[in-house]
Design goal:
The protein contains twelve helices and seven strands. By secondary structure, it is α/β, with parallel strands linked by helices. Helix 1 packs parallel to helix 9 and helix 2 packs parallel to helix 4. The longest helix has 28 residues. It starts with 6 loop residues before the first strand and ends in a 19-residue tail after the last helix.
């Protein structure tokens, strides 16, 4: 895992505001510099490389920074459902989709092995379609089997499963973590019930709290982010060294200045988490520190930021 109390991007970034015709490497470098300036680690290519071969994409991105670079890979369950509206309900359609999902798992297993062999320190497997598993035993078995195939023989790297876009708790942790993932990243904004997955995740696995909203406007103050990390750390005896912060999902749909501001808020929260409690409290809304004083009306707004800071302007 990256250092304790790390912050990272979960999903993509919008195109940096460079001139039309700017080369891809310049765009990726701009995305990396924005993450570095905000204090994020590990960093990503912001999804700007698109469908590039993952190993080549990771190597090119890693050559642009001295920070750890993670590589995102679409998971087999999501890839196998692509182009199949609703996933299909008939026996024949389910069988065809199952074949597609398992074929994707085998193909992507090769990709993960190549990334590990190349020295990629962290692979993030994105499975937004996991929110559709629900309580269906066949879907649960398909997801579990696909991910066991996906991770078969993958060693020497940290592999994280990322679920965004909604609640996946109905599938159960025994389905979500049927494979030997080192950590679980979950969207806690669009999928607040994913907290059930966090609580059920064994304490020796990491949790990446996707707690910074990917919408604009939103309240991006540090109080909720710090609470999320503290609660995740308290579950299963996990401790803070196995917990990180992230955006709830992709920022690619936002304007560049808004996305950068959100990265900065994320990095600020991670820095506050590294401070001693007494010093950290000076940067927080006192009402988040002492609920009793807040109830009695004995506190003012946070001293370190104005009334609109921490909230994106409308």
């Amino acid at each position: 895992m990256p250092r304790p109390m790390f912050a990272t991007l979960l999903g993509g970034l919008p195109r940096p505001p460079l001139a039309d015709g700017a080369p891809l490497e310049a765009l990726v470098e701009a995305a990396i510099r924005a993450q570095e300036a905000a204090g994020l680690d590990p960093v990503t290519d912001g999804g700007l490389r698109g469908e590039a071969r993952p190993v080549e994409a990771w190597r090119a991105t890693a050559g642009l920074t001295d920070r750890a670079v993670k590589q995102a890979v679409t998971g087999p369950y999501t890839a196998g459902r692509a182009g199949r509206a609703g996933g299909g309900v008939g026996a024949g359609e389910f069988a065809a989709r199952s074949d597609a999902v398992l074929a994707q798992a085998r193909a992507r297993n090769t990709v993960l092995c190549e990334l590990a062999a190349a020295g990629c320190p962290l692979i993030e497997v994105h499975e937004p379609a996991a929110v559709a598993i629900g309580a269906d035993p066949a879907e649960r078995d398909l997801f579990s089997g696909a991910h066991q195939l996906l991770l078969d023989g993958v060693h020497g790297t940290h592999v994280s499963l990322a679920i965004t876009g909604g609640n996946a708790d109905a599938a159960g942790i025994e389905t979500i973590l049927a494979a030997s993932y080192a950590s679980l990243a979950v969207d806690l904004i669009a999928g607040p019930d994913n907290w059930r997955l966090v609580v059920a995740t064994p304490g020796d696995r990491g949790i990446i709290c996707g707690a910074l909203p990917a919408t604009d406007p939103s309240d991006d103050g540090p109080e909720l982010l710090l609470w999320a990390v503290g609660y995740a750390a308290s579950t299963g005896g996990r401790g803070p060294a196995r917990v990180g912060l992230a955006t709830a999902s992709s920022l690619a749909h936002l304007a560049w200045p808004v996305a950068v501001r959100k990265l900065e808020r994320l990095g600020e929260a991670a820095r506050l988490l590294d401070l001693p409690p007494a010093e950290r409290a000076q940067h927080l809304d006192p009402r988040a520190v002492s609920s009793r004083s807040a109830a009695l009306g004995r506190v003012d707004g946070p001293p370190s930021r104005g009334p609109d800071q921490g909230r994106d302007p409308t």
